[in-house]
Design goal:
alpha/beta; 6-stranded parallel β-sheet; hydrolase; hydrolase activity; two-stranded antiparallel ribbon; PGP-like_dom2; Rossmann fold; HAD_sf; HAD-like_sf; 2 domains
């Protein structure tokens, strides 16, 4: 079936991931340890490793790389045992993540060649969308700062009101909004979760190596693995 829509993950696919989210997660952890001192010692290292951050490396299968903030909040809630309910704690963690993103706008950068690729796809008539595990506020702020928000017909995020990737809910929302079928869509992302999302949705899946996953990790789940979204053209799928 002819490709009519392209759905993208955000961080690690369109925007630089590593420095941005390492610094953001480190900042959130520092704030939490100040606000929630515990009787049982919980270190910054332990909190970061619990979401897949090991020094300067982010695990492709960890919560920071692939999951919505709610999952990170739940892991930290269990570790810190704060004197509040999970709803309040989750709201605070989301606020801290959004605050850290807004405090470091200089780290929000499109990966090389991304904007021109998006413009080219848009000019050729493709419907473009975002499907991210990030929150609404951080997603919209990042895309605005990167200067690419106006290029998207659909922006989907994981803010607790829709089932996150790899469930197909965000694909279904994109298709409904743009009057497409999933088989007419290709999903581009940098994680195994992104590839499984495309498969679960009935779409095509293309992996990129600008984020957390390796060629080997992506290859068994993707039709193609590219160095970057900047290399992508829908005609590549004809020979996949």
């Amino acid at each position: 079936m002819e490709i009519k829509g392209v759905l993208f993950d955000k961080d690690g696919t369109l925007l630089e991931f590593h420095q941005m989210w390492l610094k953001v997660s480190q900042g959130v952890v520092a704030a939490l340890l100040t606000r929630y001192p515990t009787q049982v010692e919980v270190t910054a290292t332990a909190l970061l490793e619990a979401i897949g951050v090991y020094g300067e490396r982010v695990d492709n299968y960890g919560l920071l790389a692939s999951n919505p903030v709610e999952d990170t909040s739940k892991k930290w809630f269990d570790m810190l045992a704060p004197q509040c309910d999970f709803v309040a704690f989750n709201h605070e963690v989301k606020g801290l993540f959004n605050q850290q993103v807004e405090q470091m706008p200089e780290l929000i950068q499109t990966l090389p060649g991304i904007k021109s690729t998006l413009i080219n796809l848009k000019q050729k008539g493709f419907k473009l969308g975002i499907a991210t595990a990030d929150t609404k506020d951080a997603t919209l702020y990042s895309l605005e700062q990167a200067g690419i928000i106006e290029l998207f017909d659909f922006i989907g995020y994981s803010d607790g009101d829709i089932e996150p990737k790899p469930a197909p809910a965000l694909m279904e929302a994109f298709c409904q909004h743009c009057d497409l079928h999933a088989a007419e869509v290709v999903m581009l992302g940098d994680t195994v979760s992104d590839m499984k999302f495309g498969i679960n949705s009935g779409a095509r899946s293309v992996g990129v190596l600008t984020g957390t996953a390796s060629q080997e990790e992506l290859a068994s789940h993707a039709e193609l693995v590219l160095d970057s979204v900047a290399e992508f053209t829908p005609c590549l799928l004809k020979s996949a």
